[in-house]
Amino acid sequence: PMSEWDPSELANPVGLLQFSPVDQQIPFLVPGVAPYRKALAEKPLPSLMIIGECDCASLDSNSIQKPPAWSPDPGAVTQFSQLSPKGSDSWAVVANVERGSHCGYLTEENTVCSLAGKLDQCERCKAKEPYAASGAESRFSDALLGKLIGSCSGEDPFGGDFCRWIRSDCMTWLNTRNPGGHVNLLPFSDGSYTDYSGKGARCS
């Protein structure tokens, strides 16, 4: 078992980046990864969740996908609320891409992703054109990954200090309406473009 592995044999993760996350659950077969999110919420580890305004596969709850990735309702149980419980010291941050779709972050079309996205059946963004793969959202995702790697490089770049993570080049770049000139982000209730537990009370 991994619990008996030598530390030198284990990975040393420096951060987590999720695009359009879906937590599939099938009784007795696929239990979902809520316990994993609970464990991550307690670690001083840079964590980013990128959701898309038009992503029904990620944002809608159904018999297989539960809970949804995120909700504007602060009282709703979501993947992000499990990663970043209210009042916690979680390092998880979320951002919302305007016109973002389930497959928009991909560098090329993918049949399985397209089936999951089902834009023709999605009730979100009926009056908008969601991003397709290998477009602006994909270029944004690539740029974000580069920013995250750059900010997290080196040994212990944040020294266990959450505020250094929030003020990093990656987060400063992301917390704008049009990061890198690729896509627009939707603002949260306070007008900023990123959200996390305890915003306003932490790093003031």
Notes on the structure:
By secondary structure, this protein is an alpha/beta fold. It has 7 helices and 3 strands. It has one domain (2-181). The protein has helices spanning 34-41, 56-59, 79-83, 111-117, 136-152, 162-166, 169-174; strands spanning 16-19, 47-52, 92-97. It has a 3-stranded parallel β-sheet with strand order 1-2-3, covered by helices on one side. Strand 1 (16-19), helix 1 (34-41) and strand 2 (47-52) form a beta-alpha-beta unit. It is globular, with a radius of gyration of 17 Å. The mean pLDDT is 92.
Spell out the key features of this protein.
single chain; alpha/beta; 3 strands; 7 helices; 3-stranded parallel sheet
Concise summary:
With 204 residues, this protein is α/β, with parallel strands linked by helices. The chain has one domain (2-181). The protein contains seven helices and three strands.
